[in-house]
Structures are given as structure tokens and as C-alpha cells.
Predict the structure.
Amino acid sequence: MQACCRSWLMCCFISSDHVIYAQMPGFFDGFEMFSIIVFSIEYISRIWICVEDKRYQSSIKGRLKYMVSPMAIVDLIAVLPFYLGMFFNIDTRFLRVLRLFRIFKLSRHFSAMSVLLTVIKNELATLLSAIFIMLVLVVLASAGMFMVERGAQPEAFGTIPRAMWWATITLTTVGYGDVIPVTIAGKTLGVFITILGVGMAALPAGIIASGFTREVNKRRDTYRICCAMHWKTAY
């Protein structure tokens, strides 16, 4: 199943190039059909046997509960674009966007994705706190730039919402350069905001990296304990 999932995603990416797709349309369409059949069978099978899990023991309610679980929704999204395009007249651009969600199916078959999702779940409160602080800084930076630049550049800093674009790209250290302060006060404020943004932009990455390290070490220790118990039992 892992090989099929990898090949399926690779074909999705490659077939997005119209030149490559035009050379082998039969291959890409055939593999798409084969993959849809395989994943449809997998989805139906998981719904059918989910009652073996203690969390979904009820015949009907258990299956319905499983169908709204995150991984079941991921499995459904993986095959949904194909059936929507087959039975309904839907804009193909919308279906292409839905196909991008197939990458989340990797989380079921690859431990690295599983670790990342676990880390995000465990560190969600901390991440939300960091995001909240960032939003507060965006508002404060926007208000400050509005006060010092609105006279010189009313089209860019005439209101606080307009100034939020500059504040956001500056605090996230993107800096497109389409909007820049021109007054001395604006440039001075921009320097402080840029320096502050370097640390704030790295904060969520640091939280995830720290959580990732802890989770990997935890799983490694669990694996070592299981191996030690296995060898102790065997000998």
C-alpha cells in the first residue's frame, strides 16, 4: 500500500505538466483508475472492520464515528475528487485543488508524518500562544507605522488594515519590498520591527523542532524497551 501511495502521488505531480501528460495520457489515466479502485477498496474495508476496534464497537454508530475520524476523512478525500468528477459537472480547477489533499494520506503510511502530526497535536497550545503574540505584534506594528507614515504614503499606510500587509511581511522576515517606509521615523520603526520579527518568526519553528526531538527520542526509547523485553523473553 505504501508503494501504491507513493506512485500515485508521484503520478499526480508529474501529470500536472501538460506536456508530459500529453505524451502518455493512457498510462496516467489507467494508473489513476487503478489507484482509485485500490484506495476505494481500502476505504470501504476500513469502515467494515473498524468495529473490531473498541472505540467503534457499535455496528452503525461505531462505523459512523469512524467515518468522521481524521484518518477516515483523509482516506475519503483521497478518492472523492474522482467520483465528484465522474457524477457531477464540477470545475476541474476545484478538483485539482482537492487532489492536492491526497498528500495527507502519507501520514497513515509514513512514520515521519505521524510524528509530525503528533508533535503539532501535543504542542498546539504553545503554538497558538506564539501565533497570538505574533498577531498582537502585527497590530501594534501596523498602528505604529500608520501613525508615522500615513502622511507620506496614504495609499500604503493610510489605514491600520492597509499597514498590516507591511507589518506581516516584515515580522515574518519575507520582505517583498513592494511597500517600504520612506520617512526617518518609519525607517527607524521598521528596523526595530524587522529585528523583532527575526526572533518571532523562528519561535514556532523552534517549538516544533523541540517537540519533534522529544517525540523521536520517546519513540526510540519505547522501541529499545520493546526490543530488550523481546530478547529477554526469547532467551
Observations:
- The chain has two domains: 2-109, 124-234.
- Residues 184-234 form the longest helix (51 residues).
- The chain has twelve helices and no strands.
